[in-house]
Design brief:
Chain lengths: 257, 357, 308
């Protein structure tokens, strides 16, 4: 099985504050650590496991600047056979990202049975790359995949996550695009020495502008806003009855009761 | 390399191992398996707390503790690491601390002080006070650098810190076998220390002290803060002006005592400030490991057993000491967690010192 | 006259609540509102037209089917200005595919509108990004749940028409729904956790907390000391060496907040802590705190819930 997995290097804001600059349209990213998008590490692990199971190979692709090579090296250390960096500027809108991916596949003649990517990126949360790419390539798509169960000839049985703790099982024919949900597997640990060794494997750099001419943008990112602030640490005082009524009130307000 | 070939299977290592008998970890058996070239995997290698007792007791210089680290490093390269350890290592890679907290919040503990703590580069004496990641990010342990900084200020000892440039020293990373990551951490931190012309380092954790002394090869003196406290009392720069506190039991941290031979200084300090210093039945070289080291802060096995920390607390209950004193943040948390239910206080020696100044 | 096409999510015959966000947004837009549904008896008020597609529900949910359906709708009415979807598993499946397939502009997870800009969350929910479309319509949008619901919709009954279509589900087909119920509960998937700690005191007290959890419709979890004593199985453990959880509500009773435990739940949306020790570390992380014996709180809550 030939798998292409699309991975992204993102700023990790889990423990950090977002600092919007004066101009409102850029962020102060100093001191913010970067790493592979959490969802993509699950997609990568799933890709590697599939080829461990069915034979074949994994190719990793990322779109960005030279620093994004880090995620290609990590992918190779994890088990991908090679990588591609499509060099393109800062914020790339979803349609163009998918367009570049399609252009790379065509220009490099990349053969594939399956394309995997994470459900969404932690930075822009668009959750659309896989779907748009499948639409452009006119091949089937399924998102929020939590399990790849069977491979029967030229189709797969997969489970998709839907709301309310439910899942749906579908059959989808190959070649197709799947976006992978977290928790589908336990991504393996990739050692630092492994990542260093991966530097010896070729990662081809392709200029985005050369494979897909710059088109008029469809979506313009104007500026950022902060979300509304939240309160913290309130002690409930009073007698037992009052306090417990208070607790139930909070639970109702949160919608869990 | 190959030191395990000298092993004669005497069993002195397993005899004193804190995990032996209550968990599947049998260090003597692992040395035998190494001799026979048998593969070692699964969860057993991750049970070791790296207390160093086995290496201390071995009559043939096999250094089983180090051999276990080598076993771990093989598993690390294979990606065969328990999930919680994996998370800690990945966090250390990205955030330079195993808890995945923000680097910008490394020195929040200074906010509790009434005076400004300078960056070490802005000091004359270039004396660096170095905190462990757990001092930086844990609510309970954060009180210790604040307490120690207060003591230094009272004794008018100049010091500085690295603020956001302070990163994980990598001691536990090295003991977990992720040698590539350890090298990165060490190179970075050595460069920072060199860049600012640091002339002396006071470590708040025996783990950091161990990394600096044993691995970093720094040409400057490295002290554990208990050594500094002892010297300050000796030189009369600190005095127990408010009288002496209640009796306490001292718990020897493994990385301070067993591995770096610092037994006396914390005791000297405690005798200066408390009315009675009580010894546990297992103290000094045979101190009972709290099970926080060697990655055990992150890795918990699937099965249930009597934790060594609980055992320590049960003994403390029978001794007439009011509380347990220790000089390592890992011990503080591991013993502290176990002591909550029994209502026994676990405190750092600095906190006791502050009570009497 | 321009129109906006809402792709309604219908599951097991139910018109999902989240569809109302699309309809709410439509009240802010120009043009008529058309709603696309699978074969069903569902009525929708306040829109101009309902197009009921002669497809069973499971077929309707597939992006490949909806592409064919849309081709038909386009033939009849021309291109809509907006193609709208809920930002749900269904919407996230279909909307981007449509955008790629037809080459339409796309924006997802729309949560509000400000200063003429369309806002969506960015950076793990820590910021909002404001966008403008720069290309001509059609625009494909997915709309975040709870974002535009309360908005007034037009009065009146819609026109209803049928759309016959032949779909061969070759490339993607629905097999069945799968429930996530496993004998071993996955506490990391729960929205609401009732978590008990050392303070519970003895095995005998556990059943009453199981009852409380049931009454609250919460999933029972615990901190390590309870697991160590084997009063609950390991699958219920929250903490570094158990599960890391991020529920909507984490209700901790008798949990002091050991370091390892905190690491496993500190990102819960709302943390309520009950502990008789006012200095319990967990109060540093909780949003709401109660200094009280956990058993007394349990008894009072059971009484209040029994009445209600």
């Amino acid at each position: 099985m030939e798998v292409i997995v699309f991975v992204k290097r993102v700023p990790s804001f889990e423990e950090e504050e977002v600092r919007i600059r004066q101009d409102g349209s850029t962020l102060d990213l100093s001191g913010i650590p970067f790493r592979m998008n959490d969802w993509d590490s699950y997609a990568l692990e799933e890709a590697v496991r599939l080829v461990e199971r069915f034979g074949g190979s994994v190719t990793a692709v990322t779109i960005g600047t030279d620093e994004d090579d880090e995620v290609l090296r990590r992918s190779i250390a994890c088990g991908a056979k090679d990588g591609f960096l499509i060099r393109e500027g800062a914020f790339v809108e979803p349609i163009r990202r998918a367009g570049l991916a399609k252009a790379l596949i065509e220009k490099e003649g990349l053969r594939f049975d399956l394309i995997l990517t994470g459900v969404q990126a932690e930075d822009d949360q668009f959750a659309s790359f896989g779907g748009i790419l499948a639409g452009l390539l006119k091949i089937p798509y399924a998102g929020m995949v939590v399990g790849i169960e069977e491979a029967l000839g030229d189709s797969l049985t997969v489970r998709r996550e839907i709301e309310g703790g439910m899942q749906e099982r579908i059959r989808i024919s190959l070649p197709c695009v799947l976006s992978i949900q977290t928790g589908i597997n336990q991504p393996r640990y990739v050692s630092i020495m492994g990542i260093r060794r991966a530097s010896r494997v070729e990662r081809k750099v392709i200029e985005g502008g050369k494979i897909l001419s710059a088109e008029r943008s469809r979506l313009r990112l104007e500026r950022f806003f902060y979300p509304e602030k939240k309160e913290r640490a309130k002690m409930l005082e009073g007698d037992l009855l009052g306090v417990c009524q208070g607790i139930l009130g909070i639970l109702r307000e949160k919608g869990v009761l | 390399m190959g030191a395990f070939l000298a092993c004669i299977q005497c069993g002195r290592c397993t005899g004193a191992c804190p995990e032996s008998g209550i968990t599947p970890l049998n260090i003597r058996l692992l040395m035998r398996m190494r001799q026979l070239g048998l593969p070692i995997g699964g969860s057993v290698p991750w049970l070791c707390t790296c207390c160093g007792t086995c290496t201390l007791r071995c009559p043939r210089d096999v250094r089983p503790g180090d051999e276990l680290v080598r076993i771990r490093s093989g598993l690390v390269e294979q990606g065969d690491v328990p999930a919680s350890v994996q998370k800690a290592l990945e966090h250390t890679f990205v955030h330079r601390n195993p808890f995945g907290r923000s680097r910008s919040r490394r020195a929040l503990w200074v906010e509790a002080l009434p005076f400004r703590v300078p960056h070490v580069k802005d000091t004359e004496e270039r004396r660096l006070l170095f905190s462990c990641c757990i001092h930086a990010y844990d609510e309970r342990c954060m009180k210790i650098p604040t307490a120690f900084a207060t003591v230094l200020a009272k004794a008018q000892v100049e010091f500085g810190i690295l603020y956001e440039e302070e990163t994980c020293c990598g001691n536990e990373v090295e003991r977990l076998g992720e040698l590539g990551l350890f090298e990165e951490l060490m190179e970075e931190l050595r460069k920072t220390i060199g860049k600012y012309g640091v002339r002396e380092i006071i470590c708040l954790s025996p783990h950091c002290m161990n990394a600096f002394k044993v691995h970093y090869g720094l040409p400057i003196p490295i002290y554990h803060y208990s050594q500094v406290l002892a010297r300050l009392f000796d030189e009369g720069l600190l005095k127990a002006e408010k009288g002496l506190t209640a009796p306490c039991c001292y718990h020897d941290p493994c990385f301070l005592g067993k591995q770096n031979r610092v037994f006396e200084e914390p005791r000297r300090v405690l005798r200066m400030v408390s009315s009675e210093l009580i010894e546990f039945s297992r103290s000094r070289e045979i101190s009972l490991c709290c099970e926080g080291g060697g990655g055990r802060m992150f890795y918990d096995p699937d099965f249930v057993y009597e934790r060594r920390a609980e055992k320590r607390i049960l003994e403390a209950e029978t001794l007439k000491g009011g509380r347990i004193a220790t000089a390592c943040p890992f011990c503080l948390r591991m013993l502290g967690d176990a002591a909550i239910e029994k209502g026994i206080d676990v405190v750092d020696i600095t906190e006791i010192v502050l009570e009497v100044l | 006259m321009s129109y906006n096409l809402c792709f309604a999510e219908v599951r097991r015959g139910k018109f999902e609540e989240k569809n109302f966000d699309m309809l709410g947004l439509c009240s802010l837009l120009e043009g008529q509102t058309f709603v696309l549904l699978p074969k069903s008896e569902i009525e929708v008020k306040g829109v101009e037209r309902i197009i009921e597609v002669d497809l069973r529900e499971e077929s309707f949910l597939s992006p490949l089917s909806l592409v064919v359906v849309f081709e038909e709708v386009r033939k009849r009415y021309g291109d809509p200005e907006f193609l709208l979807f809920p930002h749900s598993s269904f919407g996230m499946d279909v909307a981007p595919y449509m955008a790629g397939y037809f080459g339409f502009s796309f924006l997802s997870d729309l949560s509000s509108e400000r200063e003429g800009l369309l806002l969506k969350p960015f950076f793990s929910e820590k910021a909002l990004a404001g966008f403008q479309f720069e290309a001509p319509p059609p625009y494909v949008l997915t709309v975040r749940s709870g974002s535009f619901k309360g908005l007034a919709r037009k009065e009146g009954m819609p026109e209803r028409e049928q759309l016959r279509i032949a779909i061969l589900e070759e490339k993607r087909s629905f097999v069945e729904y799968v429930s996530e119920e496993t004998p071993d509960v996955d506490i990391s998937k729960a929205d609401f956790l009732l978590s008990i700690g050392r303070g519970v005191g003895s095995r005998e007290e556990i059943p009453s907390y199981e009852i409380l959890a049931q009454r609250l419709k919460a999933t029972l979890s615990a901190s390590r000391p309870v697991i160590d004593k084997m009063w609950l199985p390991k699958s219920r453990q929250v903490g570094i060496s158990g599960r890391t959880v991020r529920p909507k509500v984490y209700f901790a009773m008798g949990i002091s907040g050991s370091f390892q435990h905190i690491q496993g739940m500190k990102d819960a949306e709302c943390i309520i802590a009950v502990n008789r020790d006012p200095n319990a570390p967990i109060f540093q992380y909780a949003h709401f705190g109660v200094v009280e014996d956990m058993h007394r709180v349990r008894d009072m809550l059971l009484e209040l819930l029994g009445k209600g």
